[in-house]
Amino acid sequence: MTCPNCGEPVGAKDRFCESCGANLRVVRTPVGGPLGAAEPGEPCVACGGTHVGADGFCEDCGRAQPAGRDRMESDLGPVAGISDKGRRRARNEDSMAFGTAGGDTPAVVAVVCDGVATSDRADNASQLAVDAASDVLLDAVLEGKDAEDATRAAVAKAVDVVAGLADPSVQRTAPSCTFVSAVVTPGEVTVGWVGDSRAYWLAADGARRLTIDDTVAAELVAEGMSEEAAMAVHQAHALSKWIGADAGDIEPRMLTFTPAGPGLVLLCSDGLWNYLPEPQALVEALPGPPDGVDLQAAASELTHVALELGGHDNITTVLVPFPPKLESAGSQP
Questions:
Q1: For the chain, which domains are there?
Q2: Residue 234: pLDDT above 90?
Q3: Nearest partner of 213 among 229, 225, 200, judged by Cα
Q4: Distance CA 56, CA 38 (A)
């Protein structure tokens, strides 16, 4: 056997590579995001056309092709995701990180954060948050810790690293982001969130939204106001909770459940759910049944739908099947 990071020989029971120090029981997206520009000859990410000019623009639809954070894609087998700048934003302030961990109870871990556009360095905030939180969750899985306790610790770590970006001399612009995570084991799914990034359960025999937005409107509905009246309130979509130095004490909401059958856990930013808010609409947009769809193709299709419907915001889509197909990830040495 060889280390997937450096190629040096490793033992079947080794947890870390002696040559490079890589954790042999963890496979994850790179720290800093799965960055990279579109390769020459690839179809347009917006329309699928093949006439992409040397200047990086599609000659059919005019869309600029991705570079760096504009379009991030990763497929680890048991989890896949895409984060796209969209058509209207100057940069991508969403971030995603995910991975698989072996151990007594192997699991898939995923985190999506959406940088708050009105804050400073929102893209840095979201990237630091997903990287830090995913590390906490992956370590917790390896150590056999409770998923809800691990989620609390992951959010606390995200708060810590994002708060460290703030400049005390600049008021009301503290780097900030939302947060949603999932820990998917062969037996259950644990979701945690802060803000309005969402998690959905998508299945052929029933789909549902797993999270409740931390927004002004959602808080008013919870207090008894009708949804129509709440949505008419000034700044109805404003966040009531977020991650940042100016957010105060943050306790994530959490949900742990055991699905009755196979399906998909979807984590996404509002760049997707603003166009497809209903669970069944998300199921119908998939290129196949939830219990057998190609994950990367599904993430690509959901992203494409959001782009076709306007792409007004950054779009991030991460999919994890349940039960997780961990044997295909090489998550155990």
A1: 72-328 (3.60.40.10)
A2: no
A3: 200
A4: 9
Distance in angstroms (rounded) separating the CA atoms of residues 230 and 320: 33
Is the pLDDT assigned to residue 2 strictly greater than 90? no
- Residue bearing the bigger pLDDT, 6 or 258: 258
Nearest to 307 by CA among 86, 124, 28, 104: 86
Strand 208-209, strand 107-114: pairing: unpaired
Per-position DSSP letters for 253-274, written without gaps between them: EEEEE--SS-EEEEEE-HHHHT
Peptide bond into 106 cis (omega under 30): no
- How would you classify the pairing of strands 107-114 and 80-84? unpaired
Cα–Cα dist 309/295, whole Å: 21
What's the rounded Cα separation, in Å, for the pair 45 and 64? Answer: 9
- Helix, coil or strand: residue 157: helix
The CB-side HSE value for 291 (13 A sphere, CA atoms) comes to 11
For residue 3, what are the contacts with CB-CB under 8 A and spacing of at least 6? Answer: 9, 10, 17, 19, 20, 22, 24
DSSP at 195: S
Locus of tokens 């871990």: 109
In angstroms, the CA 192 to CA 300 distance is 24
Question: Are β-strands 189-194 and 243-244 bridged in parallel, bridged antiparallel, or unpaired?
Answer: unpaired
Structure tokens at 146: 């409770």
The larger pLDDT score, comparing residue 156 to residue 26, is at 156
In whole angstroms, give the CA distance from residue 50 to residue 42. Answer: 7
**Residue 176: strand pairing partners:** 244
Beta bridge partners of 265: 201, 320
Nearest to 210 by CA among 146, 159, 250, 267: 267
Instruction: Please answer whether residues 201 and 261 qualify as being in contact, where contact means their C-beta atoms are separated by less than 8 angstroms.
Output: no
Q: How far apart are CA 64 and CA 47, in angstroms?
A: 11
Q: Which residue has the tokens 């166009």?
A: 275
DSSP alpha helix (H) spans, 43-142: 122-142
